[in-house]
Amino acid sequence: MKIATIGTGFIVNTFLESLQTIPGTQCIAMFSRKQETAAALAQKYHVGQIYTDLGAMLENPAIDFVYVASPNSLHYPQALKALQHGKNVICEKPFTSTEKETRHLITTAKENGLMLFEGITTIHLPNYLFLKENLARLGQIRVIQCNYSQYSSRYNKLLAGETPNIFNPQFSGGALADINIYNLHFVVHLFGAPHNVHYYANKHPNGIDTSGLLVLQYPGFLAECVGAKDTASLSFAMIQGEKGYLHVESGAHGCRKVAFHTPTEDINYNEQTNTNLLYYEMKRFCEIYEQKDYPACYALLEHSAQVMNVYERARKDAGVLFPADLA
């Protein structure tokens, strides 16, 4: 599995680090608008070639997969271009800016016999999978609470009058896209799409959400997802059922430990021995690719499309609009 990367942010470093412990994977090329931006990463992980022309990199026949980790608004056009050049794609979360873009990527991948994955750690973590398999212990679910709040240093720049990409509507940024998306994947992968969606956002004058509370209404229960980049908090997930409750330590994005509490038992579970959370998703993607398990790939894509549908409904409910909405 020979991989090329797009982007040079911290997540690319984490991604390349994860490959070090997965046999059969190798990063052979990187794309960056400036050679010097990618030089340190390329040297650290022994990447053979840096491209400043994306088209030229995609013409390289040795590349099997392209990992897209650029600003959110570029995910769709860059993933589409890679697919059109016959490359399999792993695209960072949030997958795209709209459900329409996601559906087009899925159609393109299927038409060309290619694999396409969203790089969302949560649903591939061992602790999350244990939680999902044992959810029935709680009986009828009534209330779900998820909070992922992390004060961003780039918020200081926003307050100072700058507009970092993550707080820029032109780049499809915001707290829902960057941080609350983990909570959304957590809930939707467990319970499917909700009947009703409401997003109450704290918004900057430029229209971007710096924090917000997402309410998902299901038959018989409610889920509340909080995501903030303008404040900090303990990160956690709680699922309350009529027979007990569970607590996810460190929240949906990390699932560092899962604790089930019922009147008859307390179960504490943690099987995540690798601190690099991208390791688990990449291990799964490699298995699917090596086994040519297209049904598994497509099932993950349908989940991603479902999440994008809820995500788009939520941000539009709060009046958070992107240029992609006009396409």
Primary descriptors:
about 325 residues; alpha/beta; Rossmann fold; Dihydrodipicolinate Reductase, domain 2; 2 domains; eight-stranded mixed sheet; six-stranded parallel sheet; 10 helices
What features would you describe in this structure?
With 327 residues, this protein is α/β, with parallel strands linked by helices. It folds into two domains: 2-122, Rossmann fold, CATH 3.40.50.720; 126-279 and 307-326, Dihydrodipicolinate Reductase, domain 2 (2-Layer Sandwich). The protein has ten helices and 14 strands. The chain has helices spanning 10-19, 35-44, 54-58, 72-84, 99-111, 126-133, 153-159, 175-191, 278-290, 294-317; strands spanning 2-6, 26-31, 49-51, 65-68, 88-92, 116-119, 141-149, 196-203, 209-218, 221-228, 236-241, 244-249, 257-261, 266-269. An eight-stranded mixed beta sheet has the order 8-9-10-7-11-12-13-14, covered by helices on one side. It has a six-stranded parallel beta sheet with strand order 3-2-1-4-5-6, with helices on both faces. Strand 9 and strand 10 (221-228) form a beta hairpin. Helix 4 runs parallel beside helix 5 (99-111) and helix 5 (99-111) packs antiparallel against helix 10 (294-317). It is globular and about 60 Å long.
Look at the helices and sheets and give the structural class. Answer: alpha/beta
Strand order of the largest sheet: 8-9-10-7-11-12-13-14
Task: Assess the beta-strand content as a share of residues.
Answer: 25-35%
Reading the helices and strands in chain order gives EHEHEHEHEHEHEHHEEEEEEEHH
Helical fraction equals: 25-40%
Low-confidence stretches: none
CATH class of the largest domain: Alpha Beta
Sheet having the most strands: 8 strands, mixed
Please tally the β strands and state the result: 14
Tally of individual domains: 2
Q: What is the CATH H-level superfamily of the largest domain?
A: Dihydrodipicolinate Reductase, domain 2
What spatial form do the alpha-carbon principal axes imply?
A: globular
Global Rg = 20 Å
CATH architecture of the largest domain: 2-Layer Sandwich
Mean pLDDT: 97
Query: What is the CATH topology assignment of the largest domain?
Result: Dihydrodipicolinate Reductase, domain 2
The number of helical elements comes to 10
Distance between the termini: 34 Å
